[in-house]
Amino acid sequence: MADPILAAKAAVTLLSNEKTRKGIGWAIVIILSPIIVALALLCVLGSGTVSHNISAAQLCFQDGPLPDDIPAEYRVCIEEMRTHFAGLDQSIADIESNMENGGRLDPIRVKAVFYALYFGGEAPPAAQFAHCFAASEIRTKTVTEQDENGNDVQVEQTYTVFVPIEDMATVYANITASLGIEITEEQKANADNVYSLIKYGYPLTGEGGGYEGADLPYIGADGFCSPVGANWRSIVTSEFGGRIDPINGQRDGHTGMDLAVPTGTPIRAALGGTVKTATYNSSYGNYVTIDHGNGLVTLYAHNSRLLVRPGQVVRAGDVVSMSGATGRVTGPHLHFEVRVNGQRTNPRYYLP
């Protein structure tokens, strides 16, 4: 008979509404045996089992009392995870107190990985885990001190600061080295699912793109195509213009529009034109720019794969890349820009 703790793990990102069941069924099927899958579905999707259409993952990230009808094994796991999350919050605050220039960790990312690795199992110390998401650097500064004669002198001091690690491959390598565990690709995918669920409201659906409406081009009457399908308005996570930077927490200008799509979603050319750039940049990650003529250029950033080359001619709706989380990001999405004569402008003026 399957261990109830394993059954709890099976429901790591399950919601009881129809949209999410479709979105994450793939993740459970590829990881778990048929018996465990059946138990998980019975536990989570059964009549009245988890009220208010809330998943175990969401309950871990929320405060307040748990629904009365949660099975006992889930309740124990969720309460333990909430306790771990409180410890992570404190550890993250301690690390950020030793960062400079507004450096910050992404607490949702830290907790999502922790959840994927340790829900229902024995967990490591919160501080040891949280430190895997930051690197220490030795820096120097010049201070004024008094010598033995009372004279002011300039003295160089060294000190240690923490710097957020943006590359998840490095984070996972740190976890393996620090905690001595091997992390599977399924666990990494599960962490990405939980992160997207908590941050954007829906889980990812894996390579190939599960975002509804992205499989067909959506072109308006003026010929301008949405790069991610007809439902783009429902997935805008950051508008053009002023905003709080999600990485450093400072107010800054946003040069485009962010659209939360799963890794592997097909990204389409907004108009016909010629590919100017298809390369990697530390900020934009894998990105494409297309020259549409008359001073109009569009940009598509943070892709997992580029499918075009400079000089290639494309039509509106042609797939030019696959979305991802490369470059300076906190999670998978498309950063979309529209430039007119070199000036960035609001993509909403053009999207159908």
In short:
By secondary structure, this protein is an alpha+beta fold. It has 9 helices and 16 strands. Helix content is 31%, strand content 26%.
Keywords:
352 residues, alpha+beta, Glucose Permease (Domain IIA), 2 domains, 10-stranded antiparallel β-sheet, two-stranded antiparallel ribbon, 16 strands, 31% helix, globular
Report the principal-axis shape: globular
**Largest sheet report:** 10 strands, antiparallel
Taking pLDDT < 50 over at least 5 consecutive residues as the criterion, the unreliable ranges are: 1-53, 205-210
Query: What count of structural domains?
Result: 2
- Number of E-state strands: 16
How many helices? The count is 9
Distance N terminus to C terminus? Answer: 53 Å
Please identify the structural class as seen in this structure. Answer: alpha+beta
Rg calc:
23 Å
Element-by-element helix/strand order: HHHHHHHEEHHEEEEEEEEEEEEEE
Helix content: 25-40%
Q: What's the average pLDDT? A: 79
Strand content: 25-35%
Describe the secondary-structure layout:
Elements: H1 4-10, H2 18-31, H3 34-45, H4 56-61, H5 72-96, H6 107-118, H7 126-130, E1 134-146, E2 152-164, H8 168-179, H9 185-200, E3 218-219, E4 225-226, E5 236-238, E6 241-244, E7 251-254, E8 257-259, E9 266-268, E10 273-281, E11 285-293, E12 296-306, E13 313-314, E14 319-323, E15 334-340, E16 343-345
Antiparallel strand pairs: 1-2, 3-4, 5-8, 6-7, 8-15, 9-14, 10-11, 10-13, 11-12, 12-14, 12-15, 15-16
Helix pairs in contact: 1-3, 2-9, 5-6, 6-9
